[in-house]
Amino acid sequence: MSSSSRGPGAGARRRRTRCRRCRACVRTECGDCHFCRDMKKFGGPGRMKQSCLLRQCTAPVLPHTAVCLLCGEAGKEDTVEGEEEKFSLSLMECTICNEIVHPGCLKMGKAEGVINSEIPNCWECPRCTQEGRTSKVKGGRERHLKKKPKPPIASAEGPAVPSPSPQREKLERFKRMCQLLERVPDTSSSSSDSDSDSDSSGTSLSEDEAPGEARNGRRPARGSSGEKENRGGRRAIRPGSGGPLLSWPLGPAPPPRPPQLERHVVRPPPRSPEPDTLPLAAGSDHPLPRAAWLRVFQHLGPRELCVCMRVCRTWSRWCYDKRLWPRMDLSRRKSLTPPMLSGVVRRQPRALDLSWTGVSKKQLMWLLNRLQGLQELVLSGCSWLSVSALGSAPLPALRLLDLRWIEDVKDSQLRELLLPPPDTKPGQTESRGRLQGVAELRLAGLELTDASLRLLLRHAPQLSALDLSHCAHVGDPSVHLLTAPTSPLRETLVHLNLAGCHRLTDHCLPLFRRCPRLRRLDLRSCRQLSPEACARLAAAGPPGPFRCPEEKLLLKDS
């Protein structure tokens, strides 16, 4: 019978899991191998998704979802007490056909099975042994559980020595590396099986101690005795018979945990200072110093500066000066690439325009955390998911914030932006909110209610220019809040834009006389405001009269 006709799942090898008992499983990461350096907690990018080299399990076990291919049940060795019954009800995986079965479910008569003493629940099933199929992993690890082992065939040059498998060599190298790193001699030894006859002398090794010592990283001593052959040979077992049983390999006692390594982010070294002079090809320096070149570069635009950066390396470093990039415009781009973000951070602009750009929240947060001197930020037309990064980014020098026509923004989300950070104490100066230093705020087209307007008056008291145009909820009560005696904007407001607010009526126009510093008032496209009432307000004005270049647009010369 071929292996393809044995049932579903034949030939599919199951991925094993950690035993959580061996020395490698219970230790911590070393922090020095290339897998540890890739981990995020050690400052790496976290791309490999691999465990530490010193934490590779030496005795992986079958997953808890593994079941018998014949009866469809899991291992039931815990339900019986006898060793023979435990072995018959335990799951065994064949290294040739990869089938997982109970030894008691096989009915092969006197067929022999070959058990791997190094890996739990691993053998060569009696069916594959009867068919004469060879194992995929060969070497001196496996034991043929037979009372009379067959000696290896000797050649004319000498006794035959089994060739070590690549898996065994990898395991031995791993053990030796563990001992060299920890500098602790391994003195643990595994116990022998119940059916082995130990030697009485202290220098000779028993039959079953060699695999245990191979697990501990020591090679067996070479000797001329029958025990040497038994160590490299294999022993046979008959399912359901009273022969020797599989000894489960138990790992040694876990060592004490080493002290935790100090974790820190590895950053690149600081940049060297820029040269003060321009070296020429002849070996001398140009007579003009760096300060003079920067004055020339200040008269160039962004395109010309990019061309100058391609002339030489010195000009390229000089053209990154933040005085040459007071404003950067990245508006109306579908996406921002990492080189573009790095270029913005290197230039450190004071004003950044990202309007109608597909910037993500992660990118915006990365930018704001690295632009500490940013004074003007334009985010009009972006999604609220990206703009919500303002709630967790420091904005100490921000003076202008443009949030016009933000998509999918609600009044509750806008309140979260206006409220102070949750970790701010009431006695601190930052208790006013994140926008305490903002002088100009543009909120056109947002669903701003009177509740949000109260928070705005409380946590942004230094506003001199406010844009509330096309806000559907702004009406006469909103104007009363802006011009109330307790409002801080009553004395600071200079420019006010209320165009397109259809809830405003003629009754709110006399309230604007409470703002003595008001220089510009835009009431265009307000359908319920009459031109005659606006003309009367322009004639009376706050301290002086206004002029009306357009209908419902009131201006005053400073």
Description:
Pfam families: F-box-like, PHD_4, zf-CXXC. With 558 residues, this protein is α/β, with parallel strands linked by helices. Helix content is 24%, strand content 8%. The protein is built from 18 helices and 16 strands. It has a ten-stranded mixed beta sheet with strand order 7-8-9-10-11-12-13-14-16-15, covered by helices on one side. The chain is elongated.
Which helices and strands appear, and what pairs or packs with what?
Blueprint: H1 23-26, H2 34-38, H3 83-89, E1 92-94, E2 100-101, E3 113-116, E4 122-124, H4 126-131, E5 142-143, H5 166-182, H6 209-215, H7 226-232, E6 236-237, H8 290-297, H9 302-308, H10 313-318, E7 327-329, H11 338-347, E8 351-353, H12 361-368, E9 376-378, H13 384-387, E10 400-402, H14 411-418, E11 440-442, H15 450-459, E12 465-467, H16 476-482, H17 489-492, E13 495-497, E14 520-522, H18 531-540, E15 547-550, E16 553-555
Helix pairs in contact: 14-15, 15-16
Strand order in the sheet with the most strands: 7-8-9-10-11-12-13-14-16-15
Mean pLDDT: 77
Note the main sheet: 10 strands, mixed
Low-confidence runs (pLDDT<50, min 5 residues)?
1-10, 136-161, 184-250
The gyration radius over C-alpha positions equals 40 Å
What's the total count of β strands?
Answer: 16
User: Helix share of residues?
Assistant: 10-25%
Tally of alpha and pi helices: 18
N-C termini distance: 100 Å
Class derived from helix and strand content: alpha/beta
Q: What is the beta-strand fraction?
A: 5-15%
Any idea what the shape is?
A: elongated
